[in-house]
Each structure stands twice: as structure tokens, then as C-alpha cells.
Amino acid sequence: MHVNKLKILMIGPSESGKTMIANYLSESINIEEAGTPRPTQGVRIVEFELPNLSVNGKNNNIDIELWDCSGDHKFESCWPALRLGVQGAILVCSPTTVQAATREMELLYNYFVSQPNLSAKQCVLFFNCTNDNDDMDALNLSPTFSKVSQVAINLKTGGNRLKIDFSNYVTSVLQALNKES
Fold first, then answer.
1. CB distance 71 to 60 below 8 Å
2. pTM assigned to the model
3. Helix, strand, coil share of the chain (percent; to 5)
4. pLDDT tens track, the chain, 181 positions
């Protein structure tokens, strides 16, 4: 299977920073220029290219279709359409959403990863830290997440690290898709 375009959903509770992460990864905005967050209405699709991504020893240019999904449950009726043809899922939560996140992450994982039969390698959890004291252990996630990569990210201090983590995640998705074919 040769994949040139990936459909990846970015999902998580409202106000966890999904849009800022999507904008940063697609180079739509510098973090210093980010204004006041506004809730995403439904979904926003951001398209960009990851050039020279090494997968199984070959360099590839991968087109990314990143679906920045609202965390508001009033859009739940759209979920079946969002999930159609999904090849990867990025779960995002932050210290400010940690109380609601545990149950919410389980629900989102079940619907967007388990039900469409994505492997744990096609999913990653980004814990969007706002300062160096934020602790991922506060999440207290269920054993469901034991095989899912969990990455603490900080856009203010580690944006370049986020791009590396995202590229590694995309490589993992492509390898999982190649195993299926």
C-alpha cells in the first residue's frame, strides 16, 4: 500500500489547544502571534505537506489532512462523517482539561480509534503543557492507553520537539498502514 495522503483527526476536550497545535504543525501561525483561543465550530480541515519523511528507508512527501475537531458535544452528530476514512487519531488534552479528560479520552478513543479498527500505533496522545510543572501523571488514564504513545508537548518552549514528535507519529501511522496491505 502506498499512501500519499493521510487523514488524521485531532480530537479532545474543548479548550485543550487542538487548533493551536494544528496551526503550528501546518505552519499557519507562530506561537508568539497566537491570539485568544476561539472554539472550533464542528471541524476545520488543515492541509499541509510533510516533506522528506523517511519510512522504511525511503523518503516520502506526505500530504496531511489534519481534521481539527471541536471538543463540544453539540457536534456529536457529525462524528460518523468525521470518522469516515480516518487513518490516524491525535488525542489532545491539557492540565486545564485534566479533570474532564479521563472519561472523555476513553470515549473518544473508543469511538475514533477502536471502532474504526485503528491500531494503537495509529493513535497518539498529546498532553498540551503550558508550563514546566505540568505533570502527565495527573491524567490517570485507563489501561486502554497502555499501548498508546503519550507525549508531553509545550508549544512555548518545545515547538520544534512537537514537529519531531508529529513526524514520528506519522511514520508510525504509515508503517501500520503498510502492515495492513
1. no
2. 0.90
3. 45, 25, 30
4. 456 799 999 999 988 999 989 998 998 765 544 556 677 888 899 999 998 888 878 888 999 999 999 989 999 999 999 999 999 999 998 887 777 778 889 999 999 999 999 999 999 999 988 777 777 766 778 888 899 999 989 888 877 889 999 999 999 999 999 876 6
d(CA 15, CA 71): 8
The answer to whether residues 66 and 28 touch, using CB atoms and an 8 Å cutoff, is no
DSSP string computed for 101-138: HHHHHHHHHIIIIITTT--GGGEEEEEE-SSTT--GGG
Q: 5-180: what CATH class?
A: alpha beta
CA dihedral 107, 154, 149, 102 (to 10 degrees): -30
In the chain, where the domains are located: 5-180
Distance CA 155, CA 164 (A): 12
Per-position b or e across 106-128, b if 16+ CB within 10 A of its CB: eebbebbbeeeebbbbbbbbbbb
Q: Judge contact between 151 and 125, C-beta under 8 A.
A: yes
- Whether 163 and 48 have beta carbons less than 8 Å apart is answered as no
The SS3 assignment for 181 reads coil
